[in-house]
Design brief:
With 107 residues, this protein is mostly beta strands. 0% of the residues lie in helices and 56% in strands. It is globular and about 40 Å long.
C-alpha cells in the first residue's frame, strides 16, 4: 500500500506547463489535486520521469494571481477513462519543490 505524507486537496485549477527538461513549452493542463509537496494534473502530453518542470497554476482570476512552481516529473500514466473536462489523456504527478506567488499586470 502506497503511503503519502501530505494531505491531498481536490482542486480543479487551470495550469500551464512552461518548461520541461530546460526546454520552453506551453502546455495547458488542469489540476486534479494539490498538496504541499506536489500536484497531480491531467494534460495532453506524455513526459519522461525525472525531468525538471516549471508550471503556473491559476489561483484567483479576479486578481490575476498565479502560483509558479518548480519541481520534477514523478510519473506519467495514461488515464483509463477520458477526463470529464477534456483536459487530456495523461495523468501527471509533479513535485512542488519551490514556488512563488505572482500577480500579473492588470490585477
Amino acid at each position: 500500500m502506497e503511503r503519502r505524507g501530505s494531505i491531498r486537496y481536490p482542486l480543479r485549477l487551470p495550469v500551464r506547463i512552461v518548461a520541461v527538461g530546460g526546454e520552453v513549452v506551453s502546455i495547458p493542463a488542469q489540476t486534479s489535486n494539490i498538496s504541499c509537496t506536489g500536484v497531480l494534473l491531467r494534460c495532453g502530453a506524455d513526459f519522461a520521469e525525472g525531468q525538471p518542470v516549471e508550471y503556473v497554476i491559476g489561483l484567483y482570476s479576479d486578481y490575476n494571481l498565479r502560483l509558479r512552481g518548480k519541481g520534477k516529473i514523478e510519473r506519467t500514466t495514461k488515464a483509463s477513462q477520458p477526463s470529464p473536462d477534456n483536459s487530456g489523456p495523461f495523468t501527471v504527478a509533479l513535485t512542488l519543490d519551490t514556488f512563488e506567488f505572482i500577480r500579473e499586470a492588470g490585477g
